[in-house]
Design a protein that fits this description.
Radius of gyration: 20 Å
Strand content: 15-25%
Strand order of the largest sheet: 3-2-1-4-5-6-11
Oligomer: single chain
Bound molecules: NADP nicotinamide-adenine-dinucleotide phosphate, guanosine-5'-diphosphate-alpha-D-mannose
Helix content: 40-55%
Shape: globular
Length: 334
């Protein structure tokens, strides 16, 4: 039985990856911040279905001793380093803590692995945000980075640290360069979930408008459940390498709104209001990835398209807010 450690196991990707590895027969361990153990209902919610099958270690990316301690107690075959301050807008508000967590945290994990278990295979959660002001379209592994946010800069540093540990110490270290991926488990502040949750609340009469920023920004959006399989495949290869993971399709925030509102029988133009305060000081306007290498080497491909993703998210939020057609019917019949 293989043993894997996931940092960021409480997040969107961590929870899906955890389920995937358990399905594959792995023993799964995860690090969580201690505060999560004090509020399991709220902070371990995404792991609800599998919590009794996972071994949890309290640790914080901001503390090298806490990371070192985890690796000194357990031996792992694979380490998926997903924990990060992952919200780009927040990185403009507080670039210092984003840098500290994302850069030092990655360095701590790599340094502890090198010291205690250099044979453990390592995955770093790189991002299309590293391409920023894109130098070519579509973006592939060889496209130069031009980050546009403290978050993007921190991910470039994590990427280079990962390459450096691979080259300097011969460790099996891989970078995934993942384009945006979403799901009903997406955090509420990210635009897809903000929109699908907003639609559900409007439909339920709990809100009358949705305030958004740049509707013309374009992203290559896939489903998180598809993307976490690529992370696992990277660590099963004979040699470590870096891979772009993307759908190869791009859509605007406006298209996202059209689709999500119409899924609930609404017209987004009646509800979406532009809020200048949500605009970012520097924007990434167009992301579209070329995942040809992941397709040919890993045999990876996405299964859920943009329309399918947004439909799933809208219906999950309608259900959660209690305004789904089924819930409405049940209410009407009572
Ligand atoms: P997420 O839902 O925001 O999850 C982030 C995770 O990091 C959470 O488990 C969080 O724990 C943990 N974390 C944050 N700061 C920490 C700290 N100081 N110590 C320990 N844990 C900490 O993010 P995601 O969408 O799953 O993304 C996973 C990774 O992929 C991130 O590194 C993100 O930057 C990267 N990425 C994501 C995408 C995407 O579209 N989703 C694309 C490219 C790259 P708490 O629960 O305690 O907050
Ligand atoms: N969050 C948010 N809220 N974004 C908005 C809004 C709004 O009200 N209105 C427009 N947008 C635009 C943002 O300006 C951005 O161009 C786009 O929607 C997507 O924003 P997010 O969903 O916040 O995601 P992101 O692309 O900045 O970052 C996500 O993807 C990266 C991969 O490219 C995060 O998951 C990062 O962690 C990840 O690395």
């Amino acid at each position: 039985m293989k043993k894997a450690l996931i940092t960021g196991i409480t997040g969107q990707d961590g929870s899906y990856l955890c389920e995937h590895l358990l399905d594959l027969g792995y023993e799964v361990h995860g690090i969580v911040r201690r505060v999560a153990l004090e509020q399991p209902e709220q902070r371990l919610g995404r792991l609800k279905a599998v919590l009794d099958k996972v071994q949890i270690h309290p640790a914080n990316l901001d503390s090298y001793p806490s990371i070192f301690h985890v690796f000194s107690r357990e031996h792992f075959d694979e380490c998926y380093h997903l924990a990060a301050q992952s919200f780009v807008a927040e990185s403009f508000a507080d670039g210092f803590s984003t840098m500290a967590t994302n850069i030092n945290g990655t360095h701590y994990v790599l340094a502890a692995l090198r010291e205690l278990q250099p044979q453990c295979r390592f995955y770093f959660a790189g991002s299309s945000e590293m391409f920023g002001k894109v130098r070519e379209t579509p973006q592939r592994e060889s496209t130069p980075f031009y980050p546009r946010s403290p978050y993007g800069i921190s991910k470039c540093a994590g990427f280079q640290l990962t390459v450096n540990y691979r080259e300097a110490y011969g460790m099996f270290c891989c970078n995934g360069i993942l384009f945006n991926h979403e799901s009903p488990r997406r955090g509420l502040e990210f635009v897809t979930r903000k929109v699908t949750r907003g639609v559900a609340r409007i439909k339920a009469g709990l809100a009358s408008e949705l305030r958004l920023g740049n509707l013309d920004a374009k992203r290559d959006w896939g489903h998180a459940r598809d993307y976490i399989t690529a992370m696992h495949l990277m660590l099963q290869q004979p040699t470590p390498d870096d891979y772009v993971v993307a759908t190869g399709e791009t859509h605007s925030v406006r298209e996202l709104c059209e689709l999500a509102f119409s899924e609930a029988g609404l017209d987004y133009r009646d509800y979406v209001k532009i809020d200048q305060s949500v605009y970012r000081p520097a924007e990434v306007d167009l992301l579209i990835g070329d995942a040809a290498k992941a397709r040919s080497v890993l045999g990876w491909r996405p299964h859920v398209d943009f329309a399918g993703l947004i439909k799933e998210m809208v219906h999950a939020d309608l259900e959660a807010v209690g305004s789904s057609p089924r819930a409405e019917l049940a209410l009407a019949g009572s």
